[in-house]
Amino acid sequence: MADKLGRIEQVIVSLLDNGAKLQGPAVQKYVDRVRRAHPDENPQQIVERMERMFLTAVTGSGGAVGAAAAVPGIGTVGSIAAVGAESVFFLEASALLTLAIASVHGISVQQHEQRRALVLAVALGASGMEIVEKAVGATTKNWGSLITRVPAQTISGMNRKLIHKFVTKYAARRSALILGKLVPAGIGAVIGGTGNRAIGKGVINNARDAFGPAPARWQLELTT
Questions:
Q1: CA-CA distances (angstroms) from residue 106 to 29, 100, 123, 210, 218?
Q2: pLDDT over 50 at 122, yes or no
Q3: In this structure, are residues 123 and 206 in contact, taking their beta carbons and an 8 Å threshold?
Q4: pLDDT tens string 153-198
Q5: How far is 149 from 155, CA to CA, in rounded Å?
Q6: In this structure, how many other beta carbons lie within 10 angstroms of the beta carbon of residue 135?
Q7: What span, in angstroms and rounded, lies between the C-alpha atoms of 90 and 82?
Q8: CA distance 214 to 55
């Protein structure tokens, strides 16, 4: 069992790192693109818009995977492969949303280990917050900025705890959802879409708890 969990942890870390490796300029470019499309919106409105975009994307991907099981010629093996690809998309989308909201709040997450910690902690919610607060030795209502205060000598150990917690929590929730997506006759599409939407809303709520309301004004002017 321990070996199995270890292999799952390695896979999850690999998937998460695809999103967590997003560098500051890439995340800022995404935020700036949304701002340019809606120049009259304030930071809170932009955050809410990015939340809606994220939720629409992950709901659509879940429904598409569920629908694959109802298509003649696409067997269970093909559906499982699609679920794997969709899980990668979900994790990367969650990472982008988390880092983009941090950027709007002016939280500069420069180091790779810090980005990984922030993505994991937000995905976990309250349990992630507890691990971060324990590592920092401080508590605060909106704890997202605490990531930048984690001592360098402790962040690797903290990430190992976050990864293990994430695997046990995420694997349990996603395994039930994956089985539901493989139900044929179109039922899987409904389960896939609604299931992803529910988990996606959880990510959004966790991010709101971590960062709180967005600043009233933009801290940096949008460059042209």
A1: 14, 10, 20, 14, 9
A2: yes
A3: yes
A4: 889 899 889 888 877 776 555 554 444 443 444 443 444 445 666 7
A5: 10
A6: 22
A7: 12
A8: 19
**What is the Cα Rg of the chain in Å?**
18
SS3 assignment, position 109: coil
pLDDT tops 90 at residue 37:
yes
| AA identity, residue 208 | R
Give the torsion through C-alpha atoms of 111, 12, 93, 98, to 10 deg.
Answer: -40
In whole angstroms, give the CA distance from residue 65 to residue 49.
Answer: 25
CB 106 within 8 A of CB 215: yes
At position 113, the amino acid (one-letter code) is: E
H-type alpha helices, the chain:
2-20, 24-37, 43-68, 76-104, 112-124, 126-136, 152-181, 187-211
Minimal CA–CA distance to 85: which of 61, 120, 67?
Answer: 61
pTM, rounded to two decimals = 0.75
Q: Report in angstroms the alpha-carbon separations of 129 from 37, 162, 175.
A: 33, 10, 24
Residue 71 tokens, joined: 């298509």
In whole angstroms, give the CA distance from residue 36 to residue 39.
5
* Residue given tokens 């990864």 in the structure block: 163
**In angstroms, rounded to a whole number, what is the distance separating the alpha carbons of residues 16 and 204?**
17
State the Cα–Cα distance between residues 66 and 79, nearest whole angstrom.
Answer: 8
Side chain identity at residue 111, one-letter code: Q
Check if the beta carbon of residue 20 is closer than 8 Å to that of residue 95: yes
CA 73 from centre of chain: 32
Q: How far apart (Å, rounded) are the C-alpha atoms in residues 157 and 43?
A: 34
- Residues comprising the chain, all counted: 224
